[in-house]
Design a protein that fits this description.
The chain is of the alpha/beta class. The chain contains ten helices and 13 strands. The strands form two sheets. Strands 4-1-2-3-5-6-7 form a seven-stranded mixed β-sheet. Strands 8-9-10-11-12-13 form a six-stranded mixed β-sheet, with no helix packed on it. The longest helix has 14 residues. It is globular, with a radius of gyration of 17 Å. It starts with 5 loop residues before the first strand and ends in a 13-residue tail after the last strand.
Amino acid sequence: MGTKLLEVAWHNGGWCRQMGWFAGRRSLRFERFYAVFVSFRHPTAGPCLIDAGYGPSVWQASRRLPARAHRWATPLALPPTGSPRGVLQQAGVDPASINRVFVSHFHVDHIGGLREFEGVPLVARPAALDELRRLPEGQQVHNGFLAGLVPDDFDTRCDAIDENAFAANDELGGLASLDYFGDGSLLLVDLPGHAVGHTGYVFNTNKGRVFYVVDATWDVKVLQAGRRLPWISGWLQNDLAAYYQAQAVLRTLAAELSIVACHCPTTQPRVGDH
């Protein structure tokens, strides 16, 4: 039922390296945490993205302290193509065709490539950006935000999401959602806890509904097991209590919906698969 999104595809926009323990796994090995972003085509609105992974502007934005500390804490690599535009081209998606970029939240690995998409409308929650902009630079870095990654004309081309447009959705365990296109194809879901204005997405596809929870968990198996994060990972969440409350709902929904997370290893088999 309802309009279906077409050509939903998952892409690796670079990666950072960190211990699996950081995501709640029982492993001290250093692993790649891929900066996954998503492309899809709406039948009438055309090609869109969710986030943009890492891009070359990350190096410029983190060239000095305190921003440089973020690069030290999470050593990163750009995608082999050098930019998210190259990633899309390699996957057969024309970067010039993108009509919208949805911003799930303002962490470096999600907005690092935004400057690559000049002039494209950015669907975002400006209240979250305003809150981050008001913080001292050191606190911005603690919140995973580098102001230099935000395009200079962000405010003029932002397709602003009204916070009051979110409403409790009983089908999603009471999580607040917004039907963006008004046809059931894409629900924007408020998933508080990880970051200011953190947003998930429910896709209606020909293969069923998929709940892309972005960073509401870093590992779906850890989520399903109900394991807690180590103290340092919890310290980095915007609101740890809200984070765990959202996860409790997601565990229930996992019986009905396919749950996909940005940095989860189980997402990698989807990468490059149209």
